[in-house]
Each structure stands twice: as structure tokens, then as C-alpha cells.
Design a protein that fits this description.
Layout (H helix, E strand, L loop, with lengths): L1 H19 L26 E3 L4 H12 L7 E11 L2 E7 L6 E8 L13 E11 L2 E6 L2 H4 E3 L3
Parallel strand pairs: 1-2, 4-6
Antiparallel strand pairs: 2-3, 2-5, 3-4, 5-6, 5-7
Length: 150
């Protein structure tokens, strides 16, 4: 029940962030964000977004919001942010000031285990799209989550 509630909150926050975004991104996709077939193989993610890759992150977020990434394995580096009770991994475009992010849930984390806002992290997980809920599920923090060193 706790996870369902977390997913519902994640969906609400995702749509809230989308509503606040005023950027008009192009329809072009990059090689790293184009996915021809979904896969749940977390050891070989279909989408890899490195820290500072703002355009691939914005395209990925659009694809997730459109429900196109359900079941896709991803590895993302970004900056941790908490919005209400949701945890997101973000990229910020320094020129425009726009931020792009997606909510994630680490299966074996309690609330106090998540990183501080602004901490640079990486996650590997499976995108889950269920109704309005759009979240990256990270199954095991020991293998699929870490803090990036500067």
C-alpha cells in the first residue's frame, strides 16, 4: 500500500513539474534516448544519460510523460531533488534555467536513506508507467544507486 501511495504521489509531482515547465524542446531525439524495443534488462540499460546531458534528459522526460518508456531499463546520472514526498533525479539547463527530472523509488530505502537535495547521484532502474504514475523503480540500492564523486 505504501508503494502504491508513493507511485500516486510520484505521478502527481511529475505532472506538477511538467505544468511548471515553460520550455519548448525540439522533437528530435538523440541516439541515447531513442528506444526501439522495451527491455527490463537492468544489467544492460537501453537508455543512458550522463551528468550534464540536459537535452537527452529533456527528451527522456518527454518520452516518459508520453508513456513511451514503460518497462525500459535506464541508467541516469543527475542531481537529487525532493519535491514534497517524492524524490527526483534532475538536470538543469544553465542557459534557460529550465529543469528536467523524473521521480524514482529505491525499493530498500526508507525516507531518511535518500540523498540530500543537490547531491549528484546515479540510478539504474526500470521505468514504470501505470496510469498517471511514471516512476523509475530502483530494485536494490547496493547495485543500482550511488553518489557521484566530484
Amino acid at each position: 500500500m505504501k508503494k502504491i501511495f508513493a507511485l500516486l504521489l510520484a505521478a502527481a509531482m511529475t505532472f506538477g513539474l511538467t505544468a511548471c515547465s515553460s520550455s519548448q524542446t525540439t522533437a528530435a531525439t538523440t541516439a541515447e534516448t531513442t528506444v526501439e524495443a522495451t527491455t527490463g534488462d537492468i544489467s544492460n540499460p537501453s537508455v543512458i544519460i550522463r551528468l550534464g546531458d540536459v537535452e537527452p534528459m529533456s527528451e527522456f522526460v518527454k518520452s516518459v510523460e508520453n508513456g513511451e518508456m514503460d518497462g525500459v531499463a535506464v541508467m541516469i546520472e543527475g542531481v537529487a531533488e525532493k519535491f514534497g514526498s517524492d524524490y527526483s533525479i534532475m538536470e538543469k539547463d544553465e542557459e534557460s534555467g529550465e529543469s528536467y527530472g523524473v521521480t524514482y523509488v529505491v525499493a530498500d530505502f526508507e525516507d531518511g536513506d535518500y540523498p540530500e537535495d543537490g547531491e549528484k547521484i546515479w540510478i539504474t532502474g526500470i521505468v514504470t508507467v501505470d496510469g498517471y504514475a511514471r516512476v523509475i523503480n530502483v530494485p536494490d540500492s547496493a547495485k543500482n544507486y550511488g553518489v557521484l564523486n566530484d
